[in-house]
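Recall the central idea of this unit: under ordinary conditions, the amino acid sequence of a chain determines the structure it adopts. In this exercise we apply that idea directly, starting from the sequence alone.
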Amino acid sequence: MEVYKHPELKQLALHVTPVGFPIGADADLQHCNRCIVASNFGRIGNPDIQEDYDVVLSGKELTAVETKLSPTTPWYSPSAPPKYEVMSRLYDSSGQVIGMVYMSFGYKEGDDVGKFTALAHAIADELKQRIPSKDGLFKPAA
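Accordingly, the structure predicted from this sequence is:
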C-alpha cells in the first residue's frame, strides 16, 4: 500500500502476532503476543493494549476524534495535532482475521468524518488484497 497515494492519511499501523510467537488456543490468548509490526510513526514491537484486543475480539470498529491526548497516554505529546482515528480488524486476502489496523487522519473542526471512515475502509480493503496471509506479511517484498 502506498501511503503517499492517500495524503489525508497521517498514521498507519498494523498490529499482528509475529511469526514464531506462540498463539494460544483460547480466544483471549490468541492475541497475547500481538504488537505493532509495521507503522509510519515508529513504536514497532509495542504490545497491544486492551482497546486493541477489544477491536479484534469483538470485530467492532472504533472511531474517535482526538483533540487532546491524556497525559497518562504512553505516547502523550502536548503538541499533538487533532486527528480522527479508525481502528478495525486487519484481514488477509482470504478473509482471515490476522490482527488490527490503526489509521489516523488530520482533523479540523467541521471535517466530514464519514469521508475519513470511508477512506479508511478503502485503505483496509487495499491492504487485504495485498496481504496473502499472516505469514506472507513477514516475507520480504517482491
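Residues 68 and 96 are 35 Å apart (CA to CA).
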